[in-house]
Design a protein that fits this description.
Structural class: mainly alpha
Oligomer: single chain
Number of strands: 0
Distance between the termini: 33 Å
Number of helices: 5
Radius of gyration: 18 Å
Length: 151
Protein backbone atom coordinates (compact mmCIF):
# COMPACT_ATOMS: atom_id res chain seq x y z
CA UNK A 1 0.00 0.00 0.00
CA UNK A 2 2.79 2.44 0.83
CA UNK A 3 4.44 1.89 -2.52
CA UNK A 4 1.21 2.67 -4.32
CA UNK A 5 0.56 5.80 -2.24
CA UNK A 6 4.11 7.15 -2.63
CA UNK A 7 4.13 6.44 -6.35
CA UNK A 8 0.78 8.21 -6.80
CA UNK A 9 2.01 11.15 -4.72
CA UNK A 10 5.21 11.48 -6.76
CA UNK A 11 3.18 11.20 -9.97
CA UNK A 12 0.88 14.06 -8.94
CA UNK A 13 3.77 16.12 -7.54
CA UNK A 14 5.74 15.70 -10.77
CA UNK A 15 2.72 16.80 -12.76
CA UNK A 16 2.22 19.91 -10.62
CA UNK A 17 5.91 20.82 -10.77
CA UNK A 18 5.98 20.38 -14.56
CA UNK A 19 2.89 22.55 -15.01
CA UNK A 20 4.23 25.18 -12.61
CA UNK A 21 7.60 25.28 -14.37
CA UNK A 22 5.87 25.84 -17.71
CA UNK A 23 3.85 28.68 -16.19
CA UNK A 24 7.08 30.28 -14.92
CA UNK A 25 8.65 29.94 -18.38
CA UNK A 26 5.56 31.43 -20.03
CA UNK A 27 5.34 34.39 -17.66
CA UNK A 28 9.08 35.13 -17.67
CA UNK A 29 9.93 34.78 -21.36
CA UNK A 30 10.17 38.11 -23.20
CA UNK A 31 12.44 39.86 -25.69
CA UNK A 32 14.56 41.85 -23.25
CA UNK A 33 15.37 39.41 -20.47
CA UNK A 34 17.56 40.35 -17.56
CA UNK A 35 20.30 37.93 -16.55
CA UNK A 36 18.19 36.83 -13.57
CA UNK A 37 15.13 36.25 -15.78
CA UNK A 38 17.14 34.26 -18.32
CA UNK A 39 18.47 32.01 -15.55
CA UNK A 40 14.90 31.69 -14.20
CA UNK A 41 13.75 30.38 -17.61
CA UNK A 42 16.67 27.92 -17.80
CA UNK A 43 16.04 26.74 -14.23
CA UNK A 44 12.30 26.38 -14.83
CA UNK A 45 12.98 24.33 -17.96
CA UNK A 46 15.34 22.07 -16.00
CA UNK A 47 12.68 21.57 -13.34
CA UNK A 48 10.17 20.91 -16.10
CA UNK A 49 12.37 18.23 -17.67
CA UNK A 50 13.09 16.50 -14.37
CA UNK A 51 9.48 16.59 -13.24
CA UNK A 52 8.15 15.37 -16.60
CA UNK A 53 10.59 12.48 -16.33
CA UNK A 54 9.24 11.78 -12.85
CA UNK A 55 5.69 11.78 -14.27
CA UNK A 56 6.74 9.31 -16.96
CA UNK A 57 8.53 6.93 -14.58
CA UNK A 58 5.82 6.99 -11.92
CA UNK A 59 3.15 6.64 -14.60
CA UNK A 60 4.82 3.50 -15.92
CA UNK A 61 5.09 2.16 -12.35
CA UNK A 62 1.40 2.86 -11.78
CA UNK A 63 0.39 1.02 -14.96
CA UNK A 64 2.63 -1.97 -14.28
CA UNK A 65 2.37 -2.37 -10.49
CA UNK A 66 0.07 0.02 -8.67
CA UNK A 67 -2.95 0.68 -10.87
CA UNK A 68 -5.87 -1.29 -12.21
CA UNK A 69 -3.65 -3.67 -14.13
CA UNK A 70 -2.04 -3.47 -17.52
CA UNK A 71 -5.01 -5.11 -19.24
CA UNK A 72 -7.28 -2.31 -18.05
CA UNK A 73 -5.02 0.44 -19.38
CA UNK A 74 -3.83 -1.22 -22.56
CA UNK A 75 -7.37 -2.01 -23.66
CA UNK A 76 -8.53 1.60 -23.36
CA UNK A 77 -8.35 4.12 -26.21
CA UNK A 78 -8.56 6.84 -23.54
CA UNK A 79 -5.24 5.59 -22.12
CA UNK A 80 -3.61 5.82 -25.55
CA UNK A 81 -5.05 9.30 -26.02
CA UNK A 82 -3.61 10.39 -22.67
CA UNK A 83 -0.21 8.89 -23.50
CA UNK A 84 -0.37 10.47 -26.96
CA UNK A 85 -0.95 13.90 -25.43
CA UNK A 86 2.02 13.35 -23.10
CA UNK A 87 4.21 12.39 -26.08
CA UNK A 88 2.93 15.41 -28.01
CA UNK A 89 3.75 17.73 -25.11
CA UNK A 90 7.20 16.14 -24.88
CA UNK A 91 7.82 16.78 -28.57
CA UNK A 92 6.63 20.38 -28.25
CA UNK A 93 9.16 20.87 -25.46
CA UNK A 94 12.19 19.91 -27.56
CA UNK A 95 12.65 23.26 -29.32
CA UNK A 96 12.32 25.37 -26.15
CA UNK A 97 14.64 23.06 -24.22
CA UNK A 98 17.31 23.10 -26.93
CA UNK A 99 16.99 26.88 -27.11
CA UNK A 100 17.30 27.36 -23.36
CA UNK A 101 20.24 24.95 -23.05
CA UNK A 102 22.04 26.96 -25.74
CA UNK A 103 21.83 30.01 -23.46
CA UNK A 104 23.74 28.44 -20.58
CA UNK A 105 27.32 29.04 -21.77
CA UNK A 106 26.63 32.71 -22.42
CA UNK A 107 24.74 33.14 -19.16
CA UNK A 108 27.71 31.73 -17.24
CA UNK A 109 29.73 34.58 -18.76
CA UNK A 110 26.94 37.06 -17.87
CA UNK A 111 26.02 37.38 -21.55
CA UNK A 112 22.32 37.63 -22.31
CA UNK A 113 20.78 35.58 -25.12
CA UNK A 114 20.18 37.50 -28.34
CA UNK A 115 16.46 36.99 -28.87
CA UNK A 116 14.43 38.14 -31.83
CA UNK A 117 10.69 38.66 -31.62
CA UNK A 118 9.79 35.75 -33.95
CA UNK A 119 11.82 33.34 -31.80
CA UNK A 120 10.16 34.62 -28.61
CA UNK A 121 6.75 34.21 -30.23
CA UNK A 122 7.58 30.68 -31.38
CA UNK A 123 8.85 29.72 -27.91
CA UNK A 124 5.79 31.29 -26.25
CA UNK A 125 3.34 29.45 -28.51
CA UNK A 126 5.10 26.14 -27.95
CA UNK A 127 5.05 26.63 -24.18
CA UNK A 128 1.35 27.53 -24.31
CA UNK A 129 0.74 24.39 -26.35
CA UNK A 130 2.51 22.37 -23.68
CA UNK A 131 0.31 23.97 -21.02
CA UNK A 132 -2.85 23.11 -22.94
CA UNK A 133 -1.66 19.53 -23.32
CA UNK A 134 -0.79 19.28 -19.64
CA UNK A 135 -4.23 20.71 -18.76
CA UNK A 136 -5.91 17.96 -20.83
CA UNK A 137 -3.99 15.04 -19.33
CA UNK A 138 -5.81 15.09 -15.93
CA UNK A 139 -9.15 15.20 -17.76
CA UNK A 140 -8.28 12.02 -19.64
CA UNK A 141 -6.89 10.47 -16.44
CA UNK A 142 -10.20 11.13 -14.66
CA UNK A 143 -12.17 9.68 -17.60
CA UNK A 144 -9.88 6.65 -17.68
CA UNK A 145 -10.11 6.07 -13.91
CA UNK A 146 -13.90 5.98 -14.14
CA UNK A 147 -13.95 3.56 -17.06
CA UNK A 148 -15.70 6.01 -19.38
CA UNK A 149 -15.33 5.06 -23.03
CA UNK A 150 -15.11 7.99 -25.45
CA UNK A 151 -14.49 6.02 -28.61
Amino acid sequence: MWGSAVTAYLHYLGFMLAFGALVVESLTLKKDLSLQEAWRVVTADTIYGLSATMVLITGILRVLYFGKGTDYYLSSPVFYTKVGIFIGVSLLSLYPTVSFVSWVKGLRDSKLPDLELPQIQRLSWLIRGELVGFALIPLFAAILARGIRLF
